[in-house]
Design brief:
- It is a single chain.
- The chain is an alpha+beta fold and 307 residues long.
- It has eight helices and seven strands; from the N terminus they run E-E-E-H-H-E-E-E-E-H-H-H-H-H-H.
- The protein has a seven-stranded mixed β-sheet.
- The longest helix has 67 residues, at 201-267.
- The N and C termini lie far apart (75 Å).
């Protein structure tokens, strides 16, 4: 799918040929890229950036008269599992986006709804595209923070049985987003170095602003990861307190009945000359002594706040 870049993206017929002056954005599959652009300069480098391979990170490589790289974009509905990998080849007149499914949703939405910054150059469009990828990310992170707040409030009411898997899943998703922003920061750092003098001063300024925004998103994910860790530690503390309470109750109960066990063991020996064996009130006396011991222990434990 080919687009003519102007004030917006205008679809071009596949049979149309570029005059070499018009700015063209093209979305193609890796197979089409090999078939059409095998003669491109640095094509071997471009091949290593195609999604036919297992792409793992975002990057940019500045070579003579072009920028080649990859974008690995997490799906915010399921960031730990679903990733969209895209390779790109950018010159001053052409941007080739290589997607194995040829269905890059962000590009299609931009073509339908998003006005582009003016003047609409290839570099401006690419920066618009990067901005479009993260335009809802702050809202996404704020919703993530609300989810963690709800978990924390529920945890303050009572310990949650399924909290560990929930927190682990949240931390894993945040780790993916954190890694994504870090990769974008590295990519923009390479672009800002501008070793091949590909970008103009004005474009470098736009990249710098974008990099600062990514840096803020990265800091936000770091904060959310620490927040999730604090919730997990709070949950573990609650479990420890409950376990300690249980052990304290068991210890108190054992301590209360230990003297009674001593009495039953003592009078269970049945020696012939034990005086209480023939006493008419011996049984009642032992009952009274046992009750008195229990009450005395309960009073003492309550005084020490052990009960």
């Amino acid at each position: 799918m080919r687009y003519l870049l102007g004030s917006s993206l205008s679809p071009l017929d596949e049979s149309c040929c570029s005059d070499g002056k018009a700015a063209i954005v093209e979305l193609i599959s890796p197979e089409e890229c090999v078939r059409k652009y095998a003669s491109l300069p640095h094509f071997s480098l471009l091949q290593r950036c195609m999604p036919t391979r297992q792409l793992e990170y975002c990057k940019a490589e500045l070579v003579s008269d072009c920028v080649i790289g990859t974008l690995v974009i997490p799906n915010k509905e399921n960031p730990s599992r679903d990733m969209l990998a895209v390779g790109y080849y950018m010159t001053r007149q052409t941007l080739i986006l290589i997607d194995s499914e040829r269905h890059l949703p962000a590009l299609q939405r931009m073509a339908e709804h998003v006005p582009l910054m003016m003047p609409a150059t290839i570099v401006h469009f690419f920066l618009d595209f990067l901005e479009y990828l993260i335009q809802d990310d702050m809202h996404y992170l704020q919703n993530f923070e609300k989810r963690l707040s709800v978990i924390e409030d529920a945890l303050l009411d009572k310990p949650l049985k399924n909290l560990p898997p929930t927190i682990l899943r949240a931390r894993r998703e945040l780790l993916v987003m954190n890694s994504y922003y870090l990769q974008i920061m590295d990519m923009t750092a390479v672009q800002l170095e501008n070793q091949n003098q590909f970008f103009t001063a004005e474009e470098l300024q736009i990249i710098s602003v974008f990099s600062n925004r990514i840096d803020r998103l990265y800091d936000h994910t770091q904060m959310l990861r620490e927040y999730a860790l604090q919730i997990r530690e709070m949950h573990q503390s609650q479990l420890d307190v409950r376990q300690n309470d249980t052990m304290r109750i068991l210890t108190v109960v054992t301590t209360i009945f230990f003297p009674l066990s001593l009495l039953t063991g003592w009078y269970g020996m049945n020696f012939q000359h034990m005086p209480e064996l023939k006493s008419p009130h011996g049984y009642l006396a032992i009952i009274v002594i046992s009750i008195a011991v229990i009450l005395a222990e309960i009073w003492y434990f309550k005084k020490k706040d052990w009960l």
